[in-house]
Amino acid sequence: MSEFDVIIVGSGIGGLCCGSILALSGKKVLICEAHYKPGGVAHSFSKKGYTFESGPSLWSGIGKWPTTNPLGQILKLLDEEVELFQYKSWQVIVPEGNFNLDVGEEPFKQIIKALRGEKSLKEWELFISEIKPLSQIINEIPLLSFSPDSKNLLELINLTLKFLPNVKQIPKINKAFGNLVDNHLEDPFLRNWVDLLSFLISGMSMHHTNTAAMATLFNEWFEPKSYLEYPKGGSESIVKALINGFKKNGGQLILSSKVKSINFNKNLATGINLENGSTYSCESVVVNTDAWNLKKLIPNKISERWKPKALNPNKCDSFLHIHLGFDADGLENLPLHAIYVDDWERGITAERNIAVFSIPSVLDKNMAPKGKHVLHGYTPANEPWEIWENLNPNELKYKNLKEERCSILLNAVRKFIPDIDERINLKMLGTPITHKKFTNTYCGSYGPALSAAKGLFPGCKTPVKNLFTCGASTFPGIGIPAVSASGAYAAERIIGKKAFAALLKTINL
Fold first, then answer.
1. Before 171, cis peptide (omega within 30)?
2. Backbone phi and psi for residue 137, each to the nearest 5 degrees, phi listed first
3. What would the mean pLDDT of 273-297 be, rounded to a whole number?
């Protein structure tokens, strides 16, 4: 039996961030990953010379310093750099029209003026003026150093004093963003637009999405000098940088090593058992899985100590995917990203109503063979699991339904590549069953649907003293910045506030 200070179950971004910080602090750490590739949802795969992404495609705040992005802060802490492409434009296809949109405040204001007129523009300007104080507060309180589990009363008082001019704004940060929208936006397009951005961030509408997350997004995307980033080589480059930061400080990672159960002695976690029969012992365990998979790893007598909804929350829906390899000949000014909305009236969360696309080979030529492009498209958290759960992927009924349901994706691609059907060299479709298989997520879900109107995601602490959680089921929630921060919070609980603060001080946080 091998012994470690900490064992982490799962090598998603949260687990890798947690493990790399722990290893940097001197802990002996093991990360166990069920899949044959690390990175969780943020992994890629290769076929016939194409490198296909399977998860996040919108990145920002990684390459600049200072940054409010916890992932960028952790990479800085690890002294790991990722080569990045910078770009500003993405394509938007909505009922009001098809247009290219640059990040930054002015480009969107010009779109508003053209589509909706001066009155709507003034509405938006007032709305942004209300968000800016919130963004300034978030800038001054790095998410990496603000675990809700670790602040004592004196620290909270000091923070309040620091922001005395904006003290009335502070309670808004952890409320639902829709409240702010309701108070300032009447124009249907603007309300739909903010609802769309909220849904992309959290998998929920603006009335359930956390204001802090949205204020961060607006700060990153609507500043005059804003830009988006794409890692050279795709999301795999981010994963490799975290693993390098982990391993150079002595961390160990084992793949194709699914954890069967966590061992306990009374109310203490003592180690883990793998499905292959291997056993490892440790002083602390961190679980980087969703809440539903966590429940499977612990005995009933232990899980009974959790609040009922903590291990069985409401879930976001799943995804449809399309991966294309296609001829690039004659295609000029293709967008790296495009977003498609079929009908605002159906609602942001309606199934097969929204699709998101990335064509990373527009910037990174090595992602596809010469003269080719590679595309990943998906419907974000709006595909019901229930229509798929009893189907057999080997049967014709499943294959026909897959073609039918995924047709929304190819129809949307035709909006910006009209002759895509004649160009396709390679096509792969994915369903919630595919998503569940390769990401090990419950029902292929995006994560828990925990409404900001009803409170925060649970913190990294559990009823077991030395068992911690990180990832999309844990505060701050869903998305790369959030899960990165959650990994840092779990590391802080293990190494202690003083040691964690000393690490952050090395990068002036």
1. no
2. -60, -45
3. 97
Q: What is the residue whose two structure tokens read 């039918």?
A: 404
The closest of 207, 200, 210 to 382, measured between CA atoms, is 200
Q: Where are the alpha helices (DSSP H) in 346-495?
A: 396-405, 407-413, 420-423, 432-439, 480-495
CA distance 382 to 353: 8
State how far the Cα of 316 lies from the Cα of 380, in Å rounded to an integer. Answer: 10
Confidence of residue 319 (pLDDT cuts 50, 70, 90): very high
Position of tokens 């249907």?
Answer: 188
What does the domain layout of the chain look like in residue ranges?
2-42+68-82+233-313+451-505, 101-230, 318-444
Which residues face 110 on adjacent strands?
A: none
CA 152, 155, 159, 160: dihedral to nearest 10 degrees? 70
Residue 245: how many other CB atoms lie within 10 Å? 23
To 5 degrees, how large is the angle CA 302–CA 308–CA 313?
115
Query: Within 10 Å of residue 393's Cβ, how many Cβ atoms?
Result: 12
The DSSP secondary structure of 431-444, one letter per residue, reads -HHHHHHHH--GGG
Q: Could you give the CA distance from residue 106 to residue 104 in angstroms, rounded to a whole number?
A: 6
Burial of 44 (0-12, 13-18, 19+ CB in 10 A): buried
Q: CA angle, 68 as apex, 64 and 73 as ends, to 5°?
A: 65
Distance CA 488, CA 474 (A): 12
Q: Which residue has the tokens 């942001």?
A: 348
pLDDT (average), residues 45-71: 91
**What are residue 274's DSSP bridge partners?**
259
Cis peptide before 66 (omega within 30 of 0): yes
The pLDDT of residue 157 is 46
Q: Give the model's pLDDT for residue 150.
A: 57
The number of beta carbons lying within 10 Å of the beta carbon of residue 128 is 16
Amino acid, single-letter form, for residue 71: L
Question: In the CATH scheme, what is the code of domain 2-42+68-82+233-313+451-505?
Answer: 3.50.50.60
- Residue 60 tokens read as 């920002």
Tokens of 86: 């910078």
- Nearest to residue 439, comparing CAs of 18, 57, 42, 9? 42
**Residues counted in the chain:** 509
